[in-house]
Each structure stands twice: as C-alpha cells, then as structure tokens.
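Researcher: Please predict.
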Amino acid sequence: MATGKTVLILGGGVGGIVAATRLRQRLAPEHRVVLVEKEADHVFSPSLLWLMLGERSPGQISRPIAALTKRGIELIRGSIERIDPATRTIRVNGADIAGDYMVVALGAELAPELIPGLAEAGHNFYTLAGSQSLRSALPKLSKGRLIVLVAAMPFKCPAAPNEAAMLLEYDCRRRGVRKNVQVDLYTPEPGPMPVAGPAVSAALRQMVEAKGIGYHPGHAVTGVDPARHRIAFANGAGADFDLLAYVPPHRAPKVVRDAGMCGESGWIPVDRGTLETRFPGVHAIGDVAGIMLASIGKPLPKAGVLAHNEAEVVAHNIVQAITGKGERRQFTGNGECFVEIGDGRAAFGNGNFYADPAPQIQLRKPGILLHLGKVLYEKFWLYRQF
C-alpha cells in the first residue's frame, strides 16, 4: 500500500469542503489533505436569498474556513497564482506545492463587467455584498418597476432567479407597496430550468406568473444604461427599471483558463461518472466542471447539491486508489433543490439528470413543510461542516 500521499483540493465551496472532509475522515494520518482557499469565510450561498430580504445576517450564514483545521485538514489561505495540471502543482502565496491527486473545485467566476453598465446599475444577489446592498435598497422602493435579470447562461443555482423574483414580490406585499410596484423577470432562457424538462419548466413558470410577475424569456442583455435605468436586449427590446437585481455572467476562473484546462464549453471537461479530467490524478467538480447531457444537448446544471454529490464520489475513488480497498464509484446524476416562493413556502425538485432519453425531474407542490426543510438543511450544513 502506498504511503505519504498528498491530495490538493482547490476551493472551499460546497464541493471542496465535502471532498476535504470525506478524505480526511477516510485516509490515515500519514496522508495529507490540503485545502486551498482565498476567502476567510465560507458563505452558504442558498441563504443569500434570505439575506437580501433581511431574514438573515452575514454571520448567520457564514463560518470561518479555519474551523476545518480542527478536523485535521491542512488549510492554505491565499489566491492560487498558477496551476500546472500535468504535474499536479500549484503556486500560492509565491510558493509551489505539489500533490499526488488534485481536486479542482474553484467554482465559477462571476463577471458582471462582461455586460457594459451592469455592475453600476444593479445589485448582484449572487454575492454577500450584493445581497446586502439589495437589502438596503428594498425599503426605498415604494413604487416603480423592479426587475430581476439573468445576464447570461450558464449560471449556477438555476432556480435562484425565479426564487428571487417571487421572494422580492413577497417583500413588496409584506411592505404594503405591491400595488405600486411592477415585478418582472428577464432571462435568455427559453423557460425556467429548461434542463429539468418541459413539465417542470411550465410548472415553475406558472408559480412565477401566478404572483403577477412578468416573465420574459429569450431576452439576452447587451448592455445597461445606469443613468437612464434602462436595459437593452439583443432582440431589440428594452426595459426601464427603478431597482435592478441581477445574476451576473459566469465563466471559469482565470487561473483555470490560463492553465489550459477548459474545453470548447469554456469549462473543464470531465468524465461524467468519475469527474476525472484528461490529466492523470486530476478531478474537477462543481461549477467549474463542464458535463454535456448528450441526450438533450444541454449541460448539466451548476448547483451546490451536484457539487456535493460529485465530491462524495471523487473522495471515495481517491481513497480507493490510495488504499486499494473497495470498489470505484460513479456519479449517477442525481440532484435535488428547494424552490422558495415566498410566504414561508417552498417547492422541491429532485430526480436524475443522466436518465435516458431525457432527465427525469419531479417538482413537488409548494408547502410550509418544504420551506422548513430548507431551513433545517441550512442549519444542518453549517453545524455539520464547521
């Protein structure tokens, strides 16, 4: 049995934390599990929607990454300056470190600057700072037009823009200003969560429109005029707004692009079962990975639950490779998510994205218990991991 192996895990999001934790639990002490993360705190991203409504504080949904060291995980804080996937070597804080195995879990880089005027005009609710600024802006909106905008595809958490629109509509109602505020959702998608299939997409759109929210698919933004509060779209349409909440364009992190790891999709191509890249000993999981669903010609969604499930598989297979014990596993394409709709209620979608001839996803009707389920999962995740 080989001894003294080093596993490098790049990124402290959901996938990186799960991979590091599982590896440390299952590998003997002589093997190193090294997590590299630039941020001091891990933010539980699903709760940013509650933060923007003032129902959470930053401290309630974040935990210090350094807490993971209590589990025996080695932590390197710093930005990764270079990745050499061929040698499984990275440079961080000016020093090189090599691993026997590498798990790239760096997520997606949010790039609002790709759309002229976007960052200046609105609030990026996919970040802690953007959710906080939106929370501060909401009480000032008593009339006018509130727009939720999806700037580009693909984007992570495919239900989130629809949830945001419904939650913001709920906020207007509870503040007593709904009759004076128009709420609209603009997206380049043909419909909500199209990869989940036409039935789920139609059901989710019905939930949105039942709240009097205008749903505008097929609208790809080309630019935003912050001074005029106006959005321009590729189809020639335009939209005026008084408050703009947006999902920014996503792309693979620059250090990944510079390393030559990305494929035609702009993301790291991996084996859809093992999450292995073309570089021996190197895996990619979560948002940074690109998996095409050949049956429908669309990519696997980017979501925390899928990163979690992928990390479980990768950690197991690395342990198997190091110890020689057990059988290799395959990621099966299963996933699920809560869909917040406001009024203390949530729907729940789950199923298999790898099913043939098309993904098999079901959407349960909204209810109070499902909302409580999401609340409990938030508490469970933060308690269990930290």
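Model: Residues 304-323 form the longest helix (20 residues).
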